[in-house]
Design brief:
Number of domains: 1
Structural class: mainly alpha
Strand content: 5-15%
Shape: globular
Distance between the termini: 44 Å
Number of helices: 5
Length: 132
Amino acid sequence: MWKWLVKVARFVCSRCRLTVSLLPQFVLPYRHRLVDAVDRYFRAGHEARVEMSDGDLLRRYWRQWVSHVGSLQRDTAWPAERPLAREPIGYWEQMAKAAGNMQAVQKKLTGRFGVSLLRRYACHRKPERVIC
């Protein structure tokens, strides 16, 4: 298994000292696997999933996706293609088709809607007011 070191740009506001990190679009926040690895697992058949060395971790990610899909559809109403797929894997594939790949989906979700593929994090929310 490959191990990567990803350098993350961090910015600190000189007035309020708030720190903001800028993740590359191929990284999921607070996750140990890249977007492409999660995508491969989600799209794989049952037999292929069993063979994956990090299957336990990726199964956990799948459960998070399944529990997050409803709020993601409700909060974003994206992509524009209708109807939105009801099954979690169908919605995953629908988003990939609309954006071109899952990295682009992650970028769109965080940039436009303030949410990640697997969860909504406080770091993605837009501030209600300018702090500094």
